[in-house]
Amino acid sequence: MQTQSDARQRVLDTAEALFLARGYSAVTLRDIADALAIKQASLYYHFPEGKEQLFVAVALRTFARHRNGVEAAIAASSSDLRSRLAAVAAWFASQPPVNLMGMLHADMPALSVEERTRLGAEAYRAMFTPLREIFAAAQQAGEIRVVHPDLLSGFFLTLMDSLKHAEGRPGAPTRQAMIAEIVALLLDGVAIRQ
User: Fold this and answer.
1) From CA 98, how far away is CA 100, in angstroms rounded?
2) Each residue of 112-165: pLDDT tens digit?
3) Can you count the helices (H) and strands (E) in the chain?
């Protein structure tokens, strides 16, 4: 027998897949109910305020999962920046793409100001803060030159979001090779050193 918690998780899982694939505006509660093979009214049992409440719950759960995963990857790696970035990149590569920038620019404007502000702060805390901290520590240790850690974090996250789009194309390198190249690109650049 399915518990209330199991049913809620199933709704969240299905809604997350649809929101990631199509975006907030393109997904209706009917789409989610149809994918679950339930009546649309049943969704209001778990999310009485409707689609926005469901989207916010999905986003918060996604951000928490990413923060926990990124922090665990950092903790399990060596203390140098290259090892930490490789561990974080490998973790991101194991997850469905978040498309954080798309979410911030396409989905968030459709939300109430209160929820947009809440999710923006949580996205920053979950996705940027752990990366910001390792970049700042690397700067203090003299591993890298001084560049605003938010810029480095955003660049890294954008590359991680693009990783899934490059996989599977003819002639594309393996996931491990792409991760190594992304980390090398970020830390070493593309210029040939003489």
Assistant:
1) 5
2) 999 999 999 999 999 899 999 999 999 999 999 999 999 999 899 888 887 777
3) 10, 0
> Is-contact 19 111, C-beta < 8 A?
no
pLDDT, one tens digit per residue, over 10-68 is 999 999 999 988 989 999 999 999 999 999 999 999 999 999 999 999 999 999 999 99
134: closest CA among 86, 74, 174, 188?
74
Report which of 137, 150, 130 is spatially closest to residue 80, judged by C-alpha positions.
Answer: 137
Give the sign of the dihedral formed by CA 48, CA 113, CA 126, CA 95: positive
Would you kindly state where each structural domain of the chain is located, as residue ranges?
51-188
Q: Which fold has domain 51-188?
A: Tetracycline Repressor; domain 2 (1.10.357)
Of 132, 144, 116, give the one whose Cα is nearest residue 67: 132
What phi and psi values does residue 104 have, to the nearest 5 degrees?
Answer: -65, -35
